[in-house]
Amino acid sequence: MIDRRSTTLLALVAFLVSVEAATLLGAPPCPDPHGIHAYAHPENCNAFFLCTNGTLTLEYCENGLLFDGHGAVHDHCNYHWAVNCGDRKVDLTPISSPGCEYQFGLYPASDTCSTTYVRCVHGHPEEAHCDAGLVYEPKSHTCVWPDQLLPYCNPEEIVGFKCPHKVPPHSAAAKFWPHPRFPVPGDCGRLITCVDGYPRLLTCGDGKLFDSASLSCLDPDELPHWYVTNQF
Q: What values do phi and psi take at 144, rounded to 5?
């Protein structure tokens, strides 16, 4: 069994090794002998320093990724187009494979308006899906409302609904004008709203259900028992 004195000695040795490594790498020593800490290389946006339980190493982001301290994609790194490197140098030479310009990246699935896109992981293309009612937008690398890509996309075709030019003045939908709401047949967790005459598919979320009478998302206990029973 390792006693407290031995544990302290091991921690001290790890700290001294970190200091020595930091001197060689030109980086500050590990701030904490415990846990995992990643911080930017002062000159290279493709690289970063990693402290693992007091041990310092110099790491490099995978092709198509850069370091920004958040690491939302892979191994502390993010997509290159999402990182602000400042004055740090950047190498964006692609390492391509079939279907992937970079080993890590997001790409449109086709030249037409599409609800799917390609996610490349270690050079392997994988089909990914936008949330229901959204389409992939190559410029921002995100999924957006189809009416944001007019005339490239047809919102009515994507959502499967055509917004009316007017609604009955005393109807529930009229209360939400100029963004009237409508139920989605067979789906009690979503609704359709109209923005500038184009449909958008929304999700209630948080366990709520769409009430076709009030046209609002409500907690199940706010709805009549027969309504909840008939949905499941």
A: -135, 170
Element (H, E) at 126: strand 124-129
Q: Please, are residues 130 and 144 in contact by the beta-carbon 8 Å criterion?
A: no
Give exposure, 7-41, as e/b (b: 16+ Cβ within 10 Å): eeeeeeebbeebeebbeeeebebbeebeeebbbbb
From residue 194, how far is each of 55, 124, 200 by CA, in Å?
A: 56, 38, 6
pLDDT tops 50 at residue 1: no
CA atoms within 13 A on the CB side of 206: 4
Nearest C-alpha neighbor of 116 from the set 132, 93, 97: 132
Is the sign of the CA dihedral 99, 100, 103, 105 positive or negative?
negative
Q: What is the pLDDT of residues 39-53, one digit of tens each?
A: 899 999 999 999 999
